[in-house]
Amino acid sequence: MTRAAAEAAGEVVVEEDLPPSCDPQTQARWYQLEALERALAGNTLVFLETGAGKTLIAVLLLRRFAHRIRSSPPPSFAVFLVPTVVLVNQQAGVIKEHTDLRVAQFYGDMGVDFWNADTWRGRIDGAEVLVMTPQILLDNLRHSIFRLRDIPLLIFDECHRATGNSPYACILKEFYHPQLNSRPSDSIPTIFGMTASLIARNLALDKYSEEISEFENLMNAKVYTVASESALLQYIPIATTKIVEYDDYIVTSELYSHTIRCLNKLETKVLLYALGMTFCWMQIDYVTLRHPVCNPGIFCSAFCIILSKHNT
């Protein structure tokens, strides 16, 4: 399954792990360093395949923002948004392993819905990176517990989820864009997004450019990607699509043949038994007893009709 298909199905997709206890800067590939420079220059959406190391880019960016976070009057912290609890724990662990930033992680099962402003202040006291699911940030912004001006860096993992009335989209529409239009630029976060499936739905080819432009406007960011897939081949395995056509009714299998023989015998017995019964055959005219392996439900339906008539 591709990354796009997995994300569309709501599955957790794990990004490539960084080697433990290594310096991310020395492990970075050319395109990761290029993406980092783009992110430092302005809001950026990194669109790369699974395994290309998007998380490493986020780690490098957090390291570069550490001084700004620490030199700003408290509260000041980066926020790393992820769509699932599993990813909260995973990404928080990566940040702890590869930076010296103090990390706090939050998700719904911690009972955050019942925390007041004082509880939140105590929980985030001293934290420099908050990893959380997006609904938590949205709720805290709506209750004025968090303020965007206290967040120098806002990271969206799986940013393609910023559609409709999703928490990602609501954060941007309700808070980021109004503040963007009314306050100095230094009072809003730098945005960094990561995704392996830039567009989360199927579109006609001529609609993709328009959709990407709208997405960039919503995120107030520009897409970065590696133009040539071949440039990534030396770093990550990329699946090759191969189409094989076959007739699914022609399957050479001993089990298949044995099943067919058994069902044919059963079909013969049922029909012979039915000939001695008096009921309206119109009731099973719609039943097709051919190819029972491909559609055993229809065969069983016919059998049930016969038995029910016999019992009455």
UniProtKB/TrEMBL annotation:
SUPFAM superfamilies xrefs: P-loop containing nucleoside triphosphate hydrolases
InterPro entries: DEAD/DEAH_box_helicase_dom, Helicase_ATP-bd, P-loop_NTPase, RLR_Helicase
Endpoints of the signal sequence: none
Listed GO MF terms: ATP binding; nucleic acid binding
Pfam families: DEAD
Superkingdom per UniProt: Eukaryota
CDD domains associated with the record: DEXHc_dicer
Identification of the protein by name: Dicer-like 105
Lineage: Eukaryota, Viridiplantae, Streptophyta, Embryophyta, Tracheophyta
